[in-house]
């Protein structure tokens, strides 16, 4: 005879507590009544949970600023940022940023440096990350309890092993384990587009979308996928290498071994070619050129016509394959003139069968800007923290 396992009261309490914290962490301050409604719990259970968290210093309750409504206002439950602080690291090809992020998602402090002229070797980057973290934590008088690190490469989710980060010239680096050992805390390492998708889903443009794709466009192009409200991982966590969809047979050679990958047509070098700039132009130069071009919509559409066509073609494939209701364009794509993005969006909606079937996929720019991967790395770190605060 089998019996249905029954959750023990302490397990139920722990589950409810972490659900409540997750709600406050992502959604921000709210009243006990809202918490009760959102979590489907009765008021006395919420009171017990909130009282316990307040006693532990994880939340506080405050009277909201006076509004126009009459009557006594309900107390707001606020997460205390210092109650759980995580380290977020965003390693880009030219640049590294770190931040200490508190419960509720607030960046408490940050530091960043260019990799020009500095060592780009993994050991040098790690040393600098560790030193900067120690200094920042001392400055802020906080102690991070977990870390997340974003890398533009193929990263094994289970242990943060970087198989390849070609634009950094990294391969086979036990990045997650090394950082975890040095800082003596758990560290999650992930692909930059995957973490970008997580951030946009929790805090950005894809907040209300349960099926979304985030497209990152640095030197390389990658994708992160949210399917039915959760990150799509694939075997080993490697899903989303959309920059290496072959879109142009016998096209340009790509480091991955193929020719005509999407990345060779819409990555940073391709954008430079379209703008008549040298392939290795600094990011600032490219952004300024795009802004100038955007002042003359007709010229922008003309100059970027071929680039826009490759962008459209790849996005049609992405939408047909993954069926998102929303595609969020990040990084360099956010600097494209609006007239070009509007045209690309309209063409994707016209040419994608899936888009037509769902009444038109939305294509929007990232709303988190340059911090998207930093915030994603923080959220990856928080995943293991909210159960234990
Ligand atoms: Zn490739």
From TrEMBL:
CDD domains, per this entry? ASKHA_ATPase_ROK_BsXylR-like
Keyword field contains Kinase: yes
Question: Sorted alphabetically, which Pfam families does this protein's record hold?
Answer: ROK
* Transferase in keyword set: yes
Q: Which family does it belong to?
A: Belongs to the ROK (NagC/XylR) family.
Keywords carried by this UniProt record: Kinase, Transferase
What is the official name of this protein in its record?
Sugar kinase
Looking up InterPro entries in the UniProt record yields: ATPase_NBD, ROK, WH-like_DNA-bd_sf, WH_DNA-bd_sf
Q: Name one GO molecular function term.
A: kinase activity
